[in-house]
């Protein structure tokens, strides 16, 4: 009986620990830096694609996809 209570208590403690560890709403500096790098890469890709489309339009290319 005491063994069963101990198992239930341990299970409850583990569930509570995992539940609390998953509630981190604040992003740390590494997460923010990673997001900034992702945003910069997306902006750069979009700028290159826009420049490519402008060049293709300027030379009247048949294929305007970049």
Residue-averaged pLDDT: 81
The value of Rg in angstroms is 27 Å
Number of helices, counting only DSSP H or I runs of 4 residues or more:
2
The helix fraction, in percent, is over 70%
Structural classification: mainly alpha
Order of helices and strands: HH
Spans of 5+ residues with little confidence (pLDDT < 50)? none
Distance between the termini: 71 Å
Give a short account of the largest sheet.
none
Percent of residues in β-strands: under 5%
Number of strands: 0
Secondary structure topology:
Elements: H1 2-21, H2 29-58
Walk me through what this model shows.
With 66 residues, this protein is mostly helical. The chain is built from two helices and no strands. The protein has helices spanning 2-21, 29-58. The model has no long low-confidence stretch (mean pLDDT 81). It is rod-shaped, with a radius of gyration of 27 Å.
Key descriptive features of the protein:
76% helix, mainly alpha, 66 residues, single chain, 2 helices
Short synopsis of the structure:
The chain is mainly alpha-helical. It is built from 2 helices and no strands.
